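[09:14] KT: can someone run the structure on this one? pasting the chain below
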Amino acid sequence: MKHLVLSLNSCGLFCTPLKRQTTHLQKLKKLILIMKLVAVLLLVTCIQVSASVYSQSLSLSKKNASLRELFNEIQKQTGYNFLYSNETINDTKTFTVNFKKAKIDYVLNSLLADLPLEYSIEEGIILIVNKEVKSPVTPAKADPIIITGKITDEKDEPLPGVTVRLKGTSIGTSANADGVYFLKIPEMKGTLVFNFVGYLTEERAIRSEKTIDVKLRPDSTALQDVVIVGYGVQKKITTIGAQSSINVESLKQPVANLSNAIAGRVAGVIGVQRSGEPGYDGSQIYIRGISTFTSSSPLVLVDGVERAFSNIDPEDIANFTVLKDASATAVYGVRGANGVILIETKKGRAGKPKVNLQINQGVTQFTKIPEFADGVTYLQIANEAYHNSNPTAIPLYSEEKILATASGSDPDLHPNVNWMKEMFNDFGQNRRVNLNANGGSDRATYYLSVGYYDENGLYKTDELAQYNSAIKFTRYNFTSNLTLKLFRDTKVDFGASGWISDGNYPGRSASSIWNAAYIMPPTVIPVRYSNGSIPQPRGEESNPYDMLTQSGYVNNVTSQLWSNIKVTQDLGPWLKGLSIYGMFSFDNNNYHQISRTKTVDTYFASKRDDYGNLVFDQTRVGSSYLGYDRSNGGSRQFYTEAAVNYSNSFGDKKHDVSAMLLYNQSDRTDAFSNDFINAIPYRYQGIAARTTYAYDNRYLAEFNLGYNGSETFNTGKRFGFFPSYGIGWVTSNEKFFKSLANSIQFLKFRGSYGIVGNSSLGGRRFAYISTVASRTGYSFGRNTDNNFGGLDIGEYAVNVTWEQAKKANVGLELRTLKEALSLTLDLFMEKREGIFKPRGDVPNYAGIQATPFGNLGAVQNKGFDGTLVFNKQLSNDFSLELRGNMVWNRAIIKEDANALWPYPWQQVIGRKLGQRFGKTALGLFESEEEIANSPTQTGSIKPGDIKYKDLNGDGKIDNYDEGPVGYGSIPEIVYGFGPSFTYKGWSLGAWFKGISNVDISLNGEGLQPFQKEGTRGNLFSNITDRWTPDGSNPDPWYPRLTYPSTSNSNYDNSTWWIKNGAFMRLQNVELSYAFPKKSWLEKFGMSNFRVYAVGYNLLTFSSFKLWDVELGDGKGAQYPLMKTYSVGIDCRF
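[09:31] RB: done, structure tokens below
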């Protein structure tokens, strides 16, 4: 075979040129062309290799070997995988054979000649089944009856090898390569039992039909052969660590950012999305909550390498696993304290090429947009607030002004602007397309995928502008995984994947635009004057529409290339169960931003002249030209990993032993560093080890360790040892439990304890080295005016090292109701010690300007998480699944190195991490007499103002009366649940996501009316729900309104402004129909065609109504989250 060489210059492909913007399209075209070349190369390779599949020969010489041992040797020489049940193979008979360069079919025919077994070879799998035998208990008295049918999975793909038997007899058969079975039975009665590894067993009663088709459903709770663990795989029945997997189908949501699809989907994972802006809409992800003052982000490994996962195409994901306790994460040492997410991308499967195409088109809109009061309401409420502050003064706004605003007769001078309506469109769109193919032979398999996603935001644009300021986010993905079996015991995996994203945005940031909309009242300026001029008042307030449409645009292009090669060598011929592998990866990331921004001339019209013309004052002198600025960023990472693995069974297969020893190191460089510190590579290296033991799949033990080092710390503190221990007991495999087997099919208890680390210090590097800072003043004595400028020691720390997390976990796994109901429950406790933070107990008179840092904090986190699943086939055509999960955690501060406060309610020790502090609101004052008899408060207090609790009883309200209030911004409870139904080709599913024990602290414009001199700030539409002197509203949302709002203490941090942030959201609803295979599909060469409709973020149930509750604290001035209505097709060839 001729060799083709394809050289890719990664920098040339992924580094964005510093030329004009149009070259981005050229780069995308180049990427697509290279994808095509890679696809052709891999397909040609696989076709060449597959030509030799069925002409293989082997040599086999054994004495007194069991059939199982001979199958293992055939598998090693040919690469074929054997599929059979333990009941089928009898190891009591031995064979003495001597084959030399014999064909595989000849060898199999010779071995099975005298046995009641037969075989078939399909797609690299040798299936061994029993020959059909008539039942001795029900001898046929007439011609046998043939029952036939087709067995498929949930996607209507055929399932070869499924065992079909007549219940209570020895009559049985198996499905062929097309999933079709033929079974001879003596009479038309009885029950057929369908059984296949990894799928739920199904039973069908025999009535009058001779054709019985069956669709098997995956057994999500079954004891699969292996599961993904840290740096490898392990038998699921013997796993001790707390870990959860996500059904990858649930990740395929109409969203760009994968992090938004996992919240509420898996027990133990907390996710909160704070923005819906395309390209910046990722969720904050925590595993079992927050346990530290520094970084709480989990470690994410994609194909074994630390990488970000937000922009992965969900179609390319084969496995998504979350590791939660120390037994599961200790092997990651200083990186494992916050939990680990393991993602594996898809690989090819031997067989004919299979092509999948998925297209999804959606319409988007905001889940909720803030509603502001109209201009008339604003003017009337302003008059009321002004009267509350100045009872004898004339109104701010006359009746003529209010009437002119209401009539809209002169919108230039009396505007009435709904800024939300003027700035945003009602609908946007998104689109997702993926095309992938996989196939190969037993010598080479491939998986190729290309993906496309685009989304338009809801910002309006100026059609007259000569540039595009609309939000548009576009991303191109590609994935290529190739597996080659070079020799009998040598396998090579090569992977290359990446993405390019292109985001276009207005010249001003989303936060600036939204803040401007909150600040600008509806009655100050119009969107535009009637002569086309751009309005802008004098002062701090800005025209939101001007910022949105007249400030230019910003273009961001990001590219990411991942590549890795892994060589695995099976050393079984020297020592059974021994293997080694080595892996190397290179990742390259580049970021390029072009800013073309400007400011335009703005004016303010104060009146009309005698001729009715507007009289303008120019408030800003701008430019008609777009400015130019650019910035670059990027990084390169090299990663190396090598490991030795051993796994074997002894003593009649009752003793299972496995071990792993691994070395890894990483080197990441900031490619565009602008200072000496950031130019130094980020490095770590370490050793990981694991050993497991299981006796008779009943008694389990496991030991893990990580010995890791980071360049962040000083010599002597750089490396750490992180061990974990675990034990388990599969109670249901005990003899005494057999009497309960009909009630409880599986029961396992497990427990673990271990230590893991966190080397992230909140962005600090080399924290043990002090910095030098230039300061404007150094204070001496009580008179702070006596100061001198000069150099001073900046941030520094003494003997700093990693945080330690001591984690304990106990859990159980249960299956009952004939395996229809499963429960996984874990209780956990963590003590995080040595948290990096500044020392807060150094007094000012010590003369230390920069507070020293150290490993000073400690937090205890405890809680539980669990998953409950009910999965039942209710009839031949109808199945039901109910699934739910939940996590609750609470983190308590144990040490913080701060000075003690005078009162116990002010202490943070013993409080929740993230605890809010504020005053306790007792209600509103009802009379002057009540005010006179209450503790004094700041400002001019009147009836209708908030009354606070005097915690220390000193007769005045001040900072010493601030105690713990509310829960905090991070939820303590996160849950998800939903049903799914299937009926023939139809399926309907829904998923609800919710959070609880969380609140929102309100502040800012809109919530604190008439700030500054009273002219700053819009008003929410609920402003009418306020206190009034007549007492007509006994339970108002707003206290007494004043103009300006700073005349009293109504807007201090207090329980009055803390609102319940709990919500439940209908996150997903999907209705789909899969056409039968025997329909028109075969005419077009399709094996499956499914149409579906999806709704995302459709409904939100919450007591909080001002903005999307998930945006959290503040005033809601963020780009809202999106809801999506989409339709799609999924076809397979």
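[09:33] KT: thanks! Confidence is low (pLDDT under 50) at residues 1-55, 134-141.
[09:34] RB: yep, looked fine to me
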